[in-house]
Amino acid sequence: MIYSANDWRDYVEHNWEIAFDSLSKITVLSNPNNEPVTIIGDADDLNCIGVGTDAAVFQSINAPEYAFKKYAKNKVAKVKAEVNVYQILGESRFFSKCFASEDHYLVLSYEEGITLYDCILQGIHIPKQVVEDVEDARDYVRNKGLNPRDIHLKNILLQNGRAKIIDVSEYIQPGNDFRWEHLKKGYEEYYHMIDGKAVPFWVVDTVRKWYNQQNTYFPSIDDFMKIVQKLLYRK
């Protein structure tokens, strides 16, 4: 079939709808204690490509250029909030694009690359340029009147040696969670210890759980990092 320019533009803009029926077969449930969501249901043409504490992200084999971020039932209020953030951010090389939204999910551009979390697990080198890109992205967000927070290893992709941030849902919330500041400090002072080395999942997951409780059990982030350093030497 030969498409006119307008027909082709309409197809490109709306062919994500082919995944909607399959997405309706998937239920996402949130869990306590900041643990990743649980996914119930299945669809042969969907692959889960990411799991967070509020949502899961899927790619359809029928529309592979898009990523579908489906929120847990009790988190759907975040859909409109995240769409609003993407509208304010506009076009930027630092972030995914948001094409559309439904009641429970967003339609985003699918981004190639590996998360920094998986880089740590697989021993893939994280270049300094990634840290510099995130710093520039945070400046860009602030210049748009938003608050760059909730930036962590699973929300940053290594893409052709550069950083791509794939979750902007908390940029309308106040306050600084210091996640990025702590990651940057860890990169600058401790990353050389594991650079190029695959870190076992149990070590990474232990550090994640400790970090979520560090305000309760560790007097300062420096004390926390000293304990992490001992764990790394033990592995």
pLDDT < 50 stretches: 1-8
Q: What portion of residues is helical? A: 25-40%
Largest sheet: 5 strands, antiparallel
Cα distance, first to last residue? Answer: 59 Å
In which order are the strands of the major sheet placed?
A: 3-4-5-7-6
Number of strands: 10
Order of helices and strands: HHEEEEEHEEEHHEEHHHH
Q: How many helical elements? A: 9
Structural class: alpha+beta
Strand content: 15-25%
Form type: globular
Task: Output the radius of gyration.
Answer: 19 Å
Average of per-residue pLDDT values: 88
Written overview of the protein:
This protein is an alpha+beta fold and 235 residues long. The protein contains nine helices and ten strands. The protein has a five-stranded antiparallel β-sheet with strand order 3-4-5-7-6, with helices on one face. Strands 8-9-10 form a three-stranded antiparallel β-sheet. Helix 7 (201-212) packs antiparallel against helix 9 (221-234). The termini are far apart. 26% of the residues are buried.
